[in-house]
Amino acid sequence: MASTRVPLSVLDLVPRSQGMTPATAIEESVALAREVDELGYHRFWMAEHHGSEAFMSSATSLLLGHVAHATDRIRLGSGGVMLPNHSPLMVAEYYGTLATIHGDRFDLGLGRAPGTDPMTAAALSRSSGHLPDFAAEVADLQRYLGEPQAGRRVRALPGEGTKVPLWMLGSSTGGAQVAAALGLPFSFASHFAPDQLDEALSLYRDRFRADAETAQVDRPTTMAGVNVLVAPTQEEADHLFTTAQLMAIRIRSGQPAPLDPPVESLAAVVPTELLPLADAHQSVKMVGTPDTVVDKLEAFVDAHDLDELIVTTYTFDPEMRRRSYRMLAEAWGTGMPADERVAVSA
Q: Per the database record, which ranges form the Luciferase-like domain (predicted)?
């Protein structure tokens, strides 16, 4: 029954289709946020990417402030901030400012990947991202957002005392180790890096420290990403999903471009040697009619004992993206009253 289903959240990268301006892409993501807010989705997260032709989500905190004005109740957050690209103090100031303006609606998901190519990462003056350094920066960030302490010389103002909840993100076991050691909830990027999902979740659960000074949850708390596309028929869903497959091929083969329109046959437009890239990194996908997708999502939750799902959808036409989220919301039951939804400790 719908009342037993885990909360369903949305991950958005502000995708831009061919022929679309960056401003229009941002407007479409704001429109999506407004709609999924009304549909009862739990969170709307935006992910930091730099130098991308396809994703306009480089200045994530600015986008989230824009989205906050357009929505009412949905939790907003980074999915995530690539912390080695930034000073922990500056991140605390940005997200502390958002929380000061809009209240307790924000999550701060943290990753250690560059979110871009090596040359752009260098231009961002990125730090190493090595696990010990990264874990120390996460702890620093949490302290900046925590309660004021006597004698502290460096302070996040505004930000101090807002206690913006932290999530650790990961696409390998590295993020799982940090999340476990610090006692933080963990979100795995299985929507684009599924290979180590089971290993990362197992490591996180085995090593989780509820007694860590930085702990924010009292038990291992997990979320995982899924590629989703819902349409009235399986045939239409498969057709629309070719946009996401072409996107994956472009990313993996170094051919950046805005999203392509769907095609009747990938084989007709993609060189044979590149076809395996279409699904190699999107094996965690649920594409089809509402009932089909819901059944697959429920099986995925059960198989990995998840507390929450975060889904992402790419279509050339933004209306088809919104339609997919509408159909999924109705089938999943996200529109039920808030007090009837499954609560998570984060």
A: 16-303
State pLDDT tens for residues 255-273.
999 999 999 999 999 999 9
Residue 218 is predicted with a pLDDT of 97
- Going from the C-alpha of 43 to that of each of 40, 73, 176, 240, 345, the distances in angstroms are 9, 9, 21, 25, 14
For the stretch 222-265, pLDDT in tens is: 999 999 999 999 999 999 999 999 999 999 899 999 999 999 99
Architecture of the structural domain at 2-225+304-336: Alpha-Beta Barrel (3.20)
CA atoms of 80 and 127, how far apart (whole Å): 17
Task: State the Cα–Cα distance between residues 337 and 121, nearest whole angstrom.
Answer: 43
User: CA-to-CA distance for 343 and 96, rounded, in angstroms?
Assistant: 24
The residues of the chain scoring below 70 in pLDDT are 1-4, 114-117, 121, 124-129, 335-346
* CA quadruple 332, 235, 242, 112: dihedral, nearest 10: 20
Compute the radius of gyration of the chain from its Cα atoms: 19
Give the helix ranges, DSSP H, for the chain: 22-39, 60-70, 88-102, 118-123, 131-145, 173-182, 197-207, 234-253, 266-269, 277-280, 290-304, 318-332
pLDDT score recorded for residue 128: 65
What's the pLDDT score for residue 342? 37
Q: What is the pLDDT of residue 112?
A: 84
Contacts 24+ apart (CB under 8 A), 341-344: 341/3, 341/7, 341/40, 341/42, 342/3, 342/4, 342/5, 342/6, 342/7, 344/6, 344/7, 344/185, 344/221, 344/307, 344/308
* Per-domain residue ranges of the chain: 2-225+304-336
With beta carbons less than 8 A apart as the criterion, state whether 254 and 312 touch: no
Query: What residue has token string 């907003």?
Result: 76
Q: Give the pLDDT score at 346.
A: 41
Question: What is the SS3 assignment for 250?
Answer: helix
| Non-local CB neighbours of 275 within 8 Å, separated by 6+ positions | 249, 266, 267
> What H or E segment, with its residue span, contains residue 171?
none
